[in-house]
Design goal:
The complex is a heterodimer of chains A (268) and B (247). By secondary structure, chain A is an all-alpha fold. Chain A has one domain (2-264). Chain A has helices at 2-23, 25-46, 64-94, 96-101, 107-135, 142-169, 176-189, 197-203, 205-212, 215-227, 233-253, 260-264. Chain B is of the alpha/beta class and 247 residues long. Chain B has helices spanning 43-50, 72-77, 94-104, 109-122, 138-150, 168-185, 219-226, 231-240; strands at 5-14, 17-27, 32-36, 58-63, 66-67, 79-82, 156-160, 188-193, 204-209, 212-218. In chain B, the strands form two sheets. Chain B has a six-stranded mixed sheet with strand order 6-7-8-3-9-10, sandwiched between helices. Chain B has a four-stranded antiparallel sheet with strand order 2-1-4-5. In chain B, strand 4 and strand 5 (66-67) form a beta hairpin. In chain B, helix 3 packs across helix 4 and helix 3 (94-104) packs parallel to helix 5 (138-150). In chain B, 49% of the residues are buried. The chains are: A mainly alpha (268), B alpha/beta (247). Chains A and B meet through helix 1, helix 4 and helix 12 of A and helix 1, helix 2 and helix 3 of B.
Amino acid sequence: MRIVHYWRATAGIVGRELLRFLHQRERFVSALVRPLVWLFVFAAGFRAALGIAISPPYETYILYEVYITPGLLGMILLFNGMQSSLSMVYDREMGSMRMLMVCPLPRWFLLCSKLIAGTAVGVLQCYAFLGIAWLYDIQAPLPGYLWILPALVLGGMMLGALGLLLSSFIKQLENFAGVMNFVIFPLFFMSTALYPLWKIKESSPLLATLAEYNPFSQAVELIRFALYEQFNQWALVFTAAAFLLFIGAAILGYNPSKGMMVRKGGGD
Amino acid sequence: MTAALQIEGLSFAYGAKKALDSIAFQVEPGECTILLGPNGAGKSTLFALITRLYDAREGRIALCGYDVKRQSLQALAKLGVVFQQTTLDPDLSVTQNLRYHAALHGIGKKDADRRIQEELERLNMYERRGEKVRQLNGGHKRRVEIARALLHRPSLLLLDEPTVGLDVPSRQAIVKHVHDLVKQQNLAVLWATHLIDEIDADDSLVVLHKGQIKASGKLAEILQSTGWADPGQVFQKLTQSDKGGPA
């Protein structure tokens, strides 16, 4: 009976998130426009400036657009994760987060279900982006599109867990602009999403080290290798470890006796 | 008979600021208890503790005998809540919102649809089930929230100032509906408000001021023991100064 309850609750939370996503078409469009602008404008302009040498998983010279595609998938997951955490802060301010927290299921389970729901939306966005990229002639081997599914799920869960952790710290919606400057931009630009590690190393070994240990880089590399039917073990271990760390801290953050909620204070 | 809500020696502080100071009271099944208190009295903190947004470090809260901290899942299963702010998803329909809540409580779709019909019909909202919540007025949203809070058949209904911002007819309808539920279904209700006219003659009263209980008991008994004329006077006398008043 309990397992049925858990299953129904997860299905309910994921279903609600997908329904909300379908009803907010502008959210879907804007989630796609961002990476597409990077692909069509930034990558096209950058193509001449940046030569990509042959490095795994690529077996031949590739266009910059091809290189940047897994990075943009990571970008979709990153923004989606942050958007989910933004909506959690919003939900908390509006009270619907309390509605979720008051239902008779363990809090860690509710947070994980919320994470699964957010990731499902992110993965859908990724496939829509890949569909458009395909039409733009950025085509990976067909099985690669299946291979990346677990990579997208793990990457999405890791970045979503980071968002969840941040949402337990952020008291008000207004503070969210800080997340853009201090989390999203450093994570994205200090990574292998836009340029390969060896290229970063040429200009700054320190930056290359930071990029290498950036969990976002590892998620992107996991996706990059998977898209070409290859398995990057180090990226998998690193991404999974980061996920466990973030989700553990987020669960602690939402703990009613230890978490940040107590320190933040209530209404009156 | 086990009390639907039992609070014993409950204290809570935000850092150095004490929000609740050793409060104790109980709500029995079939009893509507009005929690009266001005802004800043500690009502929201009390509700946050009962709904386990935070854990109390001192004191105990039990719902139908289940300790909120140690047996939280059993305790929360007995609880229905209507929060001060609307917590419905405006982009989803009435039914979608209610089905979501039913899923969180592990109620299957068939059973959920039957209960949704039952609760919405009771509130004359069934024919509006397909509408998006955004299209409903404040009073109707509140009705949906009450229906939602009752879907999983709780023993205790918590209402946190549910009538704020509503017009008089909507307020009266909600007050009447909740009092009917108490009588017909033996439901226990804890209703936080600062609107005196929402109190029924049979209700119990808990007056909270600056984190302390200034009076608690049946309204009639409080009026009799203090000699004050009505709940308005009780509220005024007990919350305007820190002195006097029965505890």
